């Protein structure tokens, strides 16, 4: 069955501060081998963030050169900064049959759907309410007041896209949200593309 191995994409979106990084971290042991797509951004690193681990932090000029060179699978402007997914590592991970996890915004999700719908599963992650999001963003205390306000404004728009996703994960307790995330990651791996379906049928028929 090795030749039938194929990659799959799991897109996670949700307001900044929804708990996406926390949930991936909490579930990482249980979801098996996966490749987390490290995005490139022009925003400044937060305290504790590392270049090449959380993001590739680059200048606006460098980002715009990559756009021109066609190096992004998708990119978008979020909160006034560029964020993008580089094509090459994603392609390699998919060719190696891995589950590729993206933490991207709703615009990015639409672009990935347009290009790779067949192998894509998606989940929208959110705290139970806008109020709770505000509490968590303030508790994280990595952003100054104007940035927090901007993220809350953005969240009010982003929540309207919740229906575009296959699954919604309400991040009330980390434990429960991580359990749901493990189920979603398993479902993402089981998603069949038409191309693989044909290979599978040929193999099955013997
Ligand atoms: P995102 O990656 O979506 O921007 P984070 O994972 O950084 O969000 O989470 C935002 C903040 O909320 C962090 O300080 C995190 O520790 C906290 N947090 C995440 N999930 C929960 C939860 N279920 N209950 C309370 N705080 C949480
Ligand atoms: P943050 O600044 O909190 O890390 O991320 C802000 C927003 O940008 C989040 O909604 C996050 O999902 C989104 N984001 C991060 N990387 C990418 C990316 O590569 N592409 C797109 N479209 N959005 C991204």
Short description:
It contains 8 helices and 9 strands. With 206 residues, the protein is of the alpha/beta class.
Please characterize this protein's 3D structure:
This protein has 206 residues and is α/β, with parallel strands linked by helices. The protein folds into 2 domains: 1-33 and 99-206, Rossmann fold (3-Layer(aba) Sandwich), CATH 3.40.50.300; 38-96, Guanylate Kinase phosphate binding domain (2-Layer Sandwich). 44% of the residues lie in helices and 20% in strands. It has 8 helices and 9 strands. The protein has helices at residues 20-27, 60-68, 87-95, 106-116, 130-140, 145-158, 174-190, 194-205, and strands at residues 8-13, 34-36, 40-41, 56-57, 72-78, 81-86, 99-103, 120-126, 167-170. A 5-stranded parallel sheet has the order 2-7-1-8-9, sandwiched between helices. It has a 4-stranded mixed sheet with strand order 4-3-6-5. Strand 5 (72-78) and strand 6 form a beta hairpin. The model has no long low-confidence stretch (mean pLDDT 92). The chain binds adenosine-5'-diphosphate and guanosine-5'-monophosphate. Adenosine-5'-diphosphate (ADP) binds at residues 14, 16-22, 136, 139-140, 171, 173-174.
């Amino acid at each position: 069955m090795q030749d039938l191995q194929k990659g799959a994409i799991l897109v996670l979106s949700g307001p900044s501060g929804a708990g996406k990084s926390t949930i991936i971290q909490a579930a990482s042991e249980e979801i098996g081998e996966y490749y987390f797509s490290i995005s490139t951004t022009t925003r400044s690193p937060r305290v504790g963030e590392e270049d090449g681990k959380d993001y590739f932090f680059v200048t606006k000029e460098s980002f715009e050169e990559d756009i021109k060179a066609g190096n992004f699978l998708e990119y978008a402007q979020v909160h006034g900064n560029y964020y993008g997914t580089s094509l090459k590592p994603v392609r390699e991970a998919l060719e190696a049959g891995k589950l590729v996890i993206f933490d991207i915004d709703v615009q990015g999700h639409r672009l990935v759907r347009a290009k790779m719908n067949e192998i894509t599963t998606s989940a929208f992650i959110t705290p139970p309410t806008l109020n709770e999001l505000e509490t968590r963003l303030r508790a994280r205390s990595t952003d100054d007041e104007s940035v927090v306000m901007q993220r809350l404004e953005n969240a009010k728009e982003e929540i309207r896209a919740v229906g575009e996703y296959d699954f919604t994960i309400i991040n009330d307790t980390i434990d429960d949200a991580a359990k749901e995330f493990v189920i979603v990651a398993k479902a993402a791996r089981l998603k069949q593309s038409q191309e693989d379906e044909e290979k599978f049928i040929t193999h099955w028929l013997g």
